[in-house]
Amino acid sequence: MTIVLDQRSDQSLAVYIDGDLQFDSRDEGVYHELLALPALALAQARRPKRQLRALICGGGDGFVARELLKSSAIKQIDLVDYDPTILDLAQNEWPELNQHALTNPRLKLHICDAVQFVDLAAQAADEYDLIICDFTVPRDQAGARLHSIDWYQQLAYILHPQGLIAVNAASPSQTPVAYWMMYNSIRTADLNPKPYRFALPSFTEAGYGDDWGFFIGSRRALRPREFDHLALAEPREFLHDIEQLKRAFAFPAALAEKRTTAQPTKLASDALLHSLFAPTWDEASGTDWTSLDFVHDPAPLPKPHTSPTLVPSAVQQALQADQGLDESQVFEQVVQVMPALRAEQTRSMVREFIANPLRFLNSLDLRSLVEALLRRSRELPRKLVTELRLLRRHLQRTWENPQLLLSRGLRIVSVIALVIILANLLHPDTTYAKGDTSPGSGATSSQSMVRTNSPYDVVQAPPSTVAGRGFASSTYGRGPVDEYGTYIPTTRRYRYYGSYYGGSSYRNYNRNQRPSEDPNEGGALYRLTPETDILANGEIVIILTDQAYLLLADQVMTVVDAEDGLPIVFLQRDEALIWRTHRELDRQRRGLDGSVKAKQDWIDWVSWAGFVPWRNDDQAELNNIVQTRGTLDQAIKSLGSIPANQPAIRVAPTAGGFQLFSSVWMNAEGSLAILEQPDGSKAYLNKTGWFRDAALTQPLSEPYPDEFRTKVLVPFLTKQTTEYEAIKKRIEADLTSAKSDLSLLNSDKTEYTSIQTSYGPSDIVDYGTTEIRVDEALRRTNDDIARTQQLIQILNDQLSSLPKQNDAAKKFLQSLK
Predict the structure, then answer these.
(1) Which positions does UniProt annotate for spermidine binding (predicted)?
(2) Is the N or C terminus of the chain more exposed, i.e. has fewer CB atoms within 10 Å?
(3) Which residues, in sequence order, are bridge partners of residue 53?
(4) Where are the domains of the chain?
(5) Binding-site residue positions for S-methyl-5'-thioadenosine
(6) Is the pLDDT of residue 612 over 60?
């Protein structure tokens, strides 16, 4: 998972997870006031003398908790979020925004899965007066479960009969089918929801729709008059009064009508995901339907959708009916069948098809496409295979005359549209493959590139291909893209001079002699790790602080002032860092190689279609991936010679010293920084000077780099000491994970040893996703065990030395100020 904090010049903050906007501080109050305060007010009105107990599912950013804590009627809040990273950021990066809600004594944090927590609460017969679900829009089956009938039935079980539930949903205008599917799932669970919506400027700007939808419900149906005299908690910034709130419950009647056909979903269904990834951008306008006009919604509840499906069963059956077929209705249903894979392309193609069927068919080798699909018939529902075979027979007679083919009516048009959708879904275009390709899902993205006194030879496999749309979007080149194709919004800008500035004798650099030329300036093209960027010219930079970064080169490393691009100090090239950076570059370059091949295969495969709406976009994306791969080639070249073997783990230049970052250390007493210089000598630096020796008796002749103290050491140590607890937790988590890995490796070793003893060394066994000889599997497993044992030892050492390092850092920081 990649988390980006975009701190703007106006002091506002936007947070992105894997490229999706989570909140923008400029209008997050709109969202959280609308989600939390109406339900809170209703709960208080229903039970005015009771101290309320609330459950927040999700909401790790602390904003819903902030809203609830405005009320003295809230006695206790249980906040359940599975992601400790978000909770840590909420407590340490934006505590002022959430008003320190997560450390409020009325709130108890539970870092666990919400489903498990609710199951345990149900078993214990716990009961809540208020439940708020603040989940992100689901992107997978696990997320879709949190909008299923089963989930809401579990919540109903732990909700007091007069209690309230509030749910974050989706955009009613952009994904209306998905929105009303969520609504009907809550209705089916007998929670009597009232839908409402509001405009969120940041969500609209990010492309998530012109409005955003919520639901509020209860086991005891809400009566319209309950909204007349609500006492909304203070202070409020965006939700002004009750009349404004009531207007939020109004919808265009044509939009509300879609609730009559939107199926609620059970656990196994993937219909909600299909609808979420298939926006329909409903253009209905007006406010002539409001959910406050009734107690119980009179609209019939559609039958629940209960199973995974490529095409709804009703559509499959209708397409095979010989008579009594409502062709227009079936065609509309077919167009709505948008898989969660390249949905925007499929929809564009179907729209072009609808606009000019003859033009489309004249450019399509439909027979070849049908044959290609039938070759993969095992992946299709049996009835669809039958339908495709029937279409193949018709094509043998009518393909020479597309007009005659269309004369068969909307049924044949529906089948052709379905073929297009199936082709887009079933072709192995792995550039957009399903699976866990979330940025940061492997270990490398979370490791610190700039510290090198740690085991760093275990590198994750490259992704088979990119999954994001960063290489294809119009924003390519304006900000960094990572190996997964995720565009990363950022404000980082870089100014820098050539690495050789100052001549070959780097220690003779005179700070007072500024270069006459302007510095290079620009943003990054590629994000190698969260702290490491690659510029468009292939230069590699590592963020040290907000005011300085490390520029890698083939002979020297330079600490650069981010404001003016001038070198602050030159450091000895750290071969361990160079080796590690090269390995990561090579891994990600190999991933881009796979992306190029997959994309080219896709472009070649759709050669049966002379007319496809996305053809230019595909080619542009391919070109951008190729360009980025070339940038990584430049980056590798900029590193110069690479050590043939993994360098030894770095040893402190002074007994008991701690590495701050590559080639910069702190002594055990917390009184000196030790800089490894380009010529191999050491520089010992304190607040007032730097010296050739640790006794501080031989001053260096070069000007004292005060910017290194103020722009590098002070902010670096400040961050390190304030994040002590988070660092400790991360090391503990890594240690737990490593011990679990070791246990699994030892189990593998036992299994391989048994197989080799019984069947000999040449027997073939599974090793990961490949098959190899058992003796080779045993050798690799032993190597992995040795590396993991080394990792465990080093993590234990880091954990034991961390308190001493923190004490030394505090002492040194105090002396530097």
Answers:
(1) 32, 61
(2) C
(3) 76
(4) 26-293, 313-427, 444-638, 724-816
(5) 81, 113-114
(6) no
